[in-house]
What we know:
heterodimer, A: alpha+beta, 5-stranded antiparallel β-sheet, flat, B: 10 strands, disordered N terminus, cytoplasm (chain B), aa-tRNA-synth_II/BPL/LPL (chain B)
Amino acid sequence: MADFLFEIGLEEVPARMIAGAQAELAERVVKMLERERLVAAGAKSKSFATPRRLAVWVEGVAERQEDVAEELLGPSVKVAYKDGAATPAAFAFAKKAGVAVEDLEKVSTPKGEYIAATAVKVGRVASEVIAAEMPKELAGIYWAKNMYWRLGRPERFVRPVQWMVALLGSNVVPVSFGGHEAGAVTYGHRVLFGEQGITLAGAGAYESALQKAFVVADVEVRRQKIRKALDAVTRTVAGARWREDEELVETVTQLTEWPSVILGGFEKEYLVLPEEVLVTVMRDHQKYFAVEDVGGKLAPHFLAVLNTEADDAGLAVIRHGNERVLRARFNDARFFWEFDQRVPLTERVALLEHVTFQKDLGSYAKKADRVAELVRLLAMKAADGGVSLNVNAAVEAARLSKTDLTTDMVKEFTELQGIVGGLYARAQGYPAAVSDAIYDQYKPVSMEDSVSRTVEGAVLAMADKADTIAGMFGLGMEPTGSKDPFALRRAANGIVKILAESGVALPLSLREIATSAASGDQKLAEKVRAFFVERLEFYLREAKGQAYDVVKAVLAAGADDVRDAIARAEAVTAARGSSDFEAVSAAFKRMKNILAQAAEKRIAVGSNVDGALLTEASEKALAARSEELAGSVKSLGAEKNYEGALEAVATLRPQVDAFFDAVMVMAPDEKVRANRLALLQRVLGDFSGIADFSEIVVAG
Amino acid sequence: MTEIAGKKSALTFQELLFRLQRFWADRGCVLQQPYDVEVGAGTMSPDTFLRVLGPKPVRIAYAQPSRRPADGRYGENPNRLYRHTQLQVILKPPPADIQEMYLESLVALGIDLREHDIKFEEDNWEWPVGGAWGVGWQVMLDGLEITQFTYFQQCGGMDLDPICGEITYGLERIAAFLQDVDSIYDIVWAVEPDTGRVVTYGEMRLAEEQQFSAYSFDYADVKKLWEHLNLYEAECLALLEKAKGLDKMDELTLKRFPVLGAYELALKCSHVFNLLDARGAISVTERVGVMARIRALVVGVAKVYAEQQRLVEAMTEVVAG
Lengths: 700, 321
C-alpha cells in the first residue's frame, strides 16, 4: 500500500473553471483506481488547486491488482469433442484460456452444451495501470474552452501543460501527457519562490512542500486566509466593514497561490458618483472589494487581494499602483456621467431608432413603444383590480426605459444597463415612481434575484419580458431543448416570479399577459400562455419545492393565477399526508379511468344524476353526501381556504370506499349505467376545482 | 534610466520602446516597422494577420499605432486615446517558456517582480471580422492591465498549425505606470540630454487627438465615407475574383499576384467602417451587414494568401526536386 499523488502544472487556468476541474480530476482519479481494483470503495482522498496546478492525493493504493478468476466460454461440446476426444478447436481454446485441455469444463447454456475454462487474469502492477489510464482521464476532463499549443495539434487542454508529478509513495509513475513525462518535481510561487524545482520526497510531502514554496494548495485554506485578511485589513479603518461578496471571494481565491490583502483609498470627491457605478468599477473591472462605513454607506476605500506578499515598502508601491488604476477608472466613469447628462433621456428616445432590438422586430424605439402600450394595458388592469399605482409614471418609465443604451456609461459598463437609466432619470428630476421603475426594469434577472421594489417597476419588467417573448415566439424563435439563445425561459421565469413575489399581489393572469403581449394574435397568445404555464410549473417545483404530481394536479385545475396556484399547491401538499385524502384521491383516479374507458367504448353517460335510478344504498349515500359537500367545498374554495376545502373533500372517504366495494358501475341496465357514470362525472367535477386529484400519485 | 523630476527613475516613452525592442530582438525577433495603413489593432497588421498563417516559423516584433475613432475624446480624457501604440510580438510556434520570456521582458523595463503583484487573468481574444480568435490572459500589474497575451488558435477562419503566441503591450499605459503620471499627456516621451528639456506625450500628440476626434465625430462626410467604403470594397472584391485563377498562374505571375494589395483595401474598409461608426452613421441593423461585408474581404484575403503561399511552396519544391 502506498499513497498516490498526481499534480498537473499549467499556465494560469481561468478562475471560473478551476473548481469544476479540481472536483472532476479528483473524481476521475478515485473512480479509475476503484475501477482498476487498486483502492477499495470509499478510499480517503484530497484534492488541491491553484491557478497553476490541479492535484489529487489518494490514500492506500495497492501495489498491484489482485488476480481474478474469469470464466471463458469456448466452442460447443459438439465441436470440441469428436468421439470423446478433444478436437483442434478444443486445444486452441484451451491455449487461448491458458489452461490444459483436461481442465476444460462443460456448461449448459440456453443454446446448448458448451465448453468453458476458468482462466486467471493476472493483476498488473499499480504504476503500470495508472500510467496507462491517467492520460485518458486527463484528456476526458471537461473545459469550457480548450486550446491547442503543440505542433501538429496532438491534444487540446485548457492551457499548456508545464509539468506533471505522479508519485506512488516515493516512486515516480511514468504518466505521459501533453508532451510531458511525470516526475517528482513540482514548482512553487513564480515570483516569491522562483523557478527552481522542488523534488518531493513522496506523495505525502506535497502540501507542506508547497507551503514552504509560497503556495497554499488547499483551496479552502486559501479562501479562509483571504477572508481573515479582508477582516484584519478592514479593521484598520474605524467602523469600516467590507461588503460581503461570496462570488468575488471565490474568484480571488482562484486567482492566487499566496494571497494577501491591501487596503487602498480614493479621493472622497468620487463619492458623488452613484454607488452602483463605483461598486461596479471596483468589483467587475478591478476585482476589488468595496468598503462601507458604520452607516452602511460607501467609504473611500477598497480592498485588493494580491497574489504575493511584500514588506511595507513593497506594499506601499503596490497600493499606490492600484490606487492609480482605480482613480483612472473613476475618472472615466465621471467623464461618462457628465458627458451623458448633456443629452437628457427625453432626447435620447429618438436616438433609440438607430439601436436595433432584433432584426425583424425593429429598433429599441419600436420596442419602447410596444412596451409602453403593454404597460398601460397591464397597469390599468391592475388599477381596476384595486392595486394602487401610478399608471402614467409606469408608461413614462417604459418610454424612457431603453434610452440608457445610447449612453457611454452603459457602453462602458454594460452590466449597469437599466440601473444607469434609473440613476439618470433621478438626476434629471423625474419622480421616484419613474426612476425606480427604470432602475428595476430587468429585475429579477435570475431566480435568486429580488423583484422590483415598486408596482410600476414590476409591471414594466413584466411588459418588457412579455414583449420579448411574444416577439421571438412570433418569429418562431422559441427555445428548444437545452437551447435558449435569447434567454426566454429566464424572462418568463421572471414574470412568474414577479406575479408570485411582488410586494402587492397583482391581479394579472398569465393568460391576460400573454394575450396583451400577443396583441390580438390568438394562436400566438395560446403558445405564449402555454410557455408561461410551463415556467409556472418550473417555479412551483424549483422555487416552491412542490412534488411533480401535486404541480400537475394543481395546474390541471387552473394555471392562470400564479399566487392562487401556489396556494392550492401548498394546500394539496399539506393535505396529502392524510390517509383519507390519499384514499379519496385514489378513488378519484379510478373514477376518471372508468369515465375514460366509457368514452373510449362510446358508452352513454347521463347528463345529470337521476335520484330514482340510484338503486344501491352506497351509491345513494355517495350521491347524497357528495351533493351536500359540494356546496361547502365550493364556498371554502371561494374564500381561498384551500386546506379547509381539502379536509372536507377527504371526509368523502367512507362513501367512496363503500361505493367501490358494493357497486358495479358498468351495470347491465343501460339507464342505470348511464346514471352511475353521471354520478361519477358530477363528483369529479364538483371536487376538482382546487386540483385534479386523480393526478396525485398514491403510495403503495 | 532618465531621472524624471520628483519621480523615481523611470524610462521615457521612447526608452521603453527601445528596451522592449532590444529585448525581443535578442530573442530572435525581426524588428519590423509600423504598418503604414490605418489599423484598429496591432493584430491587423499583415505582419501578424497574414504571417501567422501556414507552417512557416515567425518571430517578429513591431510598434503599431492603432486607430480607434470611437475611443477619441478630443484629448480631454486623461486615459483614452483615438490613437495609441501597441508593441506587438509574434512567436510562431510559441516557445515552451514564452510566459517566462514575457516576465523577463518586464524585468528588462526595470520592474522588480518581487515588488509588485502580477496576475494572469483569463481574457480570450477574438476578431470576428478576421475569423480570428485565441485564448489567453490580460496581464495585471498592481491592478493595471499592461498586456494582452494570446495563444492564437484560428485566423481567417482557418485552424493554425503551428499555433502562435501573441504578446501585445499597451505602451502608453506602461509608460504612465512606470513614470507614475495620471494623464497620458504627461508621459515623458524624451529628454534632450544637453538641455534637459522634457518632451511630453501631450506635446507630440495632443493636437492629433483633438483634431482627429473632431474629424471622426463632427466633420467626416458620411456620404463620402460610404462611397470610400464601396469603392475600396469593389476593388478588393475584384482582386479576390481574379485570385480564383491562382492555381493556373505561372510562377512569376503567381508570386506577383497582389494579395497584400487586396489586404490593404480590406483594411481601408475596416477603418472607414470605424469612422462611420464613430460618426454615429451606422445603425445596429446595418452594422451586422457591413461587418459581414468586411469579413468576406478579410477572410477571403486570408484564404487566398494561404493558397498563394502553398502554391509558391509547391513550385519551389518541384524546382528543388
